[in-house]
C-alpha cells in the first residue's frame, strides 16, 4: 500500500471537492490517500511521510492561490525527487477553446516554481452564484456567458458545475498506476494471477 498526499488550495470549494474525489479513487485502489487544504498544514509537516504528492489549485483572475505557490516554492527539491502530479481547476478548463489558456496558466506556474510534475490534469470548476454578493454574481455571469457558450444546468441554488467527474477519476487512476509502476508496487489485491471464476 502506498501513501498519497493530495494537497490543495481552494477559493469557493470546488478544488477541495475535486481533491476529495481523487482521494476516494486512490483509496479504492487499496492505497492510503490524504487530502489536506494547504492553509491547514501544521508547522512540522513532513513530505517524507508520503510516497507521492498531488498538488491542486484553482485559478482566480489568472492566478493560483498564493499559499499553493509558497508550498511548492518551499518544497520543490523534495517534489522534484518524488512521484508528483498537479491538477488545476478553472472555468477555462471547461471548454476546448479555453484549454489553451488553462495550459498557459500551468506552464507559467511550472516555469516560475521550477517544478515539473509527472502528471497534470485540467478540470472545469464551478460557479457558486449562491455564495457571491450581488456585484460578483453579475460579473461572474458576464464572464461565464463570454467563456462558455453551452452552459450546464444550474442546481436548485442556481450554482453551475463544469467538472467532469469521470475525467477526475481517470486522472486519479492514471496517477496511481504511474506511481505504482515507478515505485515497483503491485496494487493491493492484485496477485498477478488471473482470477478464477
TrEMBL record:
<dbReference type="Pfam" id="PF12724">
    <property type="entry name" value="Flavodoxin_5"/>
</dbReference>
<dbReference type="InterPro" id="IPR008254">
    <property type="entry name" value="Flavodoxin/NO_synth"/>
</dbReference>
<dbReference type="InterPro" id="IPR052200">
    <property type="entry name" value="Protoporphyrinogen_IX_DH"/>
</dbReference>
<dbReference type="InterPro" id="IPR029039">
    <property type="entry name" value="Flavoprotein-like_sf"/>
</dbReference>
<dbReference type="InterPro" id="IPR026816">
    <property type="entry name" value="Flavodoxin_dom"/>
</dbReference>
<dbReference type="InterPro" id="IPR001226">
    <property type="entry name" value="Flavodoxin_CS"/>
</dbReference>
<protein>
    <submittedName>
        <fullName>Flavodoxin domain-containing protein</fullName>
    </submittedName>
</protein>
<feature type="domain" description="Flavodoxin-like">
    <location>
        <begin position="4"/>
        <end position="170"/>
    </location>
</feature>
Amino acid at each position: 500500500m502506498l501513501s498519497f498526499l493530495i494537497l490543495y488550495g481552494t477559493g469557493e470549494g470546488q478544488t477541495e471537492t475535486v481533491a476529495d474525489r481523487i482521494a476516494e479513487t486512490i483509496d479504492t485502489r487499496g492505497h492510503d490517500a490524504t487530502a489536506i487544504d494547504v492553509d491547514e498544514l501544521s508547522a512540522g509537516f513532513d513530505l517524507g511521510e508520503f510516497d507521492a504528492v498531488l498538488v491542486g489549485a484553482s485559478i482566480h483572475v489568472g492566478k493560483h492561490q498564493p499559499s499553493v505557490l509558497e508550498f511548492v516554492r518551499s518544497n520543490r527539491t523534495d517534489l522534484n525527487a518524488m512521484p508528483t502530479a498537479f491538477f488545476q481547476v478553472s472555468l477555462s478548463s471547461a471548454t476546448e477553446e479555453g484549454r489553451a489558456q488553462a495550459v498557459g496558466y500551468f506552464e507559467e506556474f511550472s516555469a516560475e516554481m521550477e517544478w515539473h510534475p509527472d502528471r497534470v490534469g485540467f478540470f472545469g470548476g464551478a460557479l457558486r452564484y449562491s455564495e457571491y454578493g450581488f456585484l460578483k454574481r453579475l460579473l461572474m455571469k458576464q464572464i461565464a456567458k463570454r467563456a462558455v457558450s453551452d452552459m450546464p444546468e444550474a442546481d436548485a441554488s442556481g450554482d453551475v458545475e463544469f467538472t467532469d467527474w469521470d475525467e477526475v477519476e481517470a486522472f486519479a487512476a492514471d496517477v496511481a498506476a504511474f506511481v505504482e509502476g515507478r515505485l515497483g508496487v503491485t496494487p493491493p489485491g492484485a496477485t498477478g494471477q488471473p482470477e478464477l471464476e
